[in-house]
Amino acid sequence: MLIIHSVGREFRPWNEYAKQIREELDKQSPWPLDVREHALETARSGNLNPEVTFVEYLEVLYANRAPDLIVAIGAPAAAFIQRHRDQLFPTAPVLFTAIDQRRLDSKGLTQEDAAVATTLDFRVLFESFLQISPDTKIVAVVNGHSPNELFWRGEIERELRPLENRIEIRWYDNLSFQDILKQAASLPPHSAIFWNTMVVDAAGTVYQGDRALTTLYATANAPIFTHDDAFFGREVIGGPMLSALVLSKEVGAVAVRILRGEKPDSIKVEPLGFAVPKYDWRELQRWGISESRLPPGSQIYFREPTAWSEYKGQILAVFALLLSQAVMISGLLFEHNRRRVAEVQARQRMSELARVNRFSTAGELTASISHEINQPLSAIQTNAETLDLVLKSPSPDMNEAKEIVADIRRDQERASEVIRRLRSLLNKAPFELRDIDLNEIARETATFLSGLALARQVDLRIAISPTPLPIRGDPIQLQQVILNLVVNAMDAMSGATSAARNVTISAARVKDFAELSISDTGSGISNDKIEDVFEPFFTTKDTGMGIGLSIARTIVEAHNGQIWAENRAVGGAFFFIRLPLSQA
């Protein structure tokens, strides 16, 4: 099978047609095809003298076996085949394609010829653009200076005469491409650019591939539209265009029919017109063109996903979490009795909400957030209940009441801060780091967990460094890590007697690091599993999901730290966290 290119193998749009045709032939052909390609270089200048030698070259090259099918891509290739048909493979079937019907000499077709042609309506094309950009006053036509391109200059000019009173049309085919770039960079407002082709400019410079269109796009100050979707993908805004894919499917089908033995002149295909309009969403946004102006049924490509479409699951989970928290607070404000029991239940609900959140999102950061926001809310509940008891006493201590209100305000601000950081998390913003003392974080977490420890009959001890341990970190996130590890330690001792339930939080300085450890007196970790405890979804609990320790590792590593586990020699386990000390 022989493919003849019009001006070269790397010129758009014909190279895209050739690529698509070969792909379709691979899909549709039941036989292996030996496809060979040649380019008609003479079409760039119109000098036909070298054609004689080129014809002789093809005759010698295929002397032993003529092609089973010749595919001519573009008008110059079609004209070349028809000029030399008697001398060049007179009995070989020829399929003319990627050619407008007005460029095909239908009188010169033989019984061995078939065509899959196109039809261009430039008036429809320009009116379609004016529909989406009605303020357009000037359209600059970028076109090359090869014989084929000059033919289209005349056709475009003839078809656009009815629009002369509506828009000013500027012709650039008599300029060098460098001068075209200067003109395109200084177009007045309400202008547009129509890109036809640029094979050879008026200075005789040849432009292959995408270089010319890409350079024009980087320079021009107006939107670009065109007639062929082979140029679609970045530079052009879109519209009704010829489709290389649609044409290639037709060509593939006709080629297979010819190779099966059908007479080419019996295969009739109506010329293909513009496909369904399609537009580049990025260019619509760039030039402020509303989608409401697009023709019905238009296709929009390269639309950037919205935050809702990209994070729908996370957003729904966050709203569900906030709603559940609001319901919980509303109910707890009416609970005035059994303060100690209510405090323990609040801590348990915190753990349950975190587990529910991990089930719903399976996201490490979202699971961490459910723990973070629960801390200040639980504290608000506890302080609200305490304030209620103080106010109901015969002689309320107003100083104590003021302190409780101050605590509630502080925890409310803390919850607001978590929600603010949640928005930044959805935008992939980093955690906020500041100078903190790891001793204080450990002490606050121990205080926070005291109620849960009491309920579970666990002796929670803390042994912090006598000197500060300054680090750079997010206090809420680090508190979440310690909370997870301590709750896990309590869970590990659920089967032990109350006298043997001991959890110790220790903090000390080790060289240039602050090291915090949590130890328990449970059964420890199986030696063959100790390396897996931080992997997502690994758990030793019957009802666990295995997310908590994975969250902890993520937070610690975000602080440039390390976390690991070891078994104690006397039973139980150690979990170590090592963070770099700050220069402060």
Task: List the keywords.
584 residues; alpha/beta; Rossmann fold; 4 domains; five-stranded mixed beta sheet
Describe this structure in words.
By secondary structure, the chain is α/β, with parallel strands linked by helices. It has four domains: 2-118, Rossmann fold (3-Layer(aba) Sandwich); 122-241 and 274-301, Response regulator (Rossmann fold); 309-426; 434-580, Heat Shock Protein 90 (2-Layer Sandwich). 43% of the residues lie in helices and 16% in strands. The chain has helices spanning 14-28, 51-61, 75-83, 122-132, 147-159, 177-185, 211-219, 244-260, 281-286, 307-310, 312-332, 339-361, 364-392, 398-426, 438-455, 475-492, 548-558, and strands spanning 2-5, 36-39, 70-73, 94-100, 113-118, 138-142, 168-171, 191-195, 224-226, 238-239, 278-280, 299-301, 434-437, 459-463, 470-473, 502-510, 513-520, 562-567, 573-580. The strands form five sheets. The protein has a five-stranded parallel beta sheet, sandwiched between helices. Strands 14-16-17-19-18 form a five-stranded mixed beta sheet. A four-stranded parallel beta sheet has the order 7-6-8-9, with no helix packed on it. Helix 13 runs antiparallel to helix 14 (398-426). The longest helix has 29 residues, at 364-392. The termini are far apart.
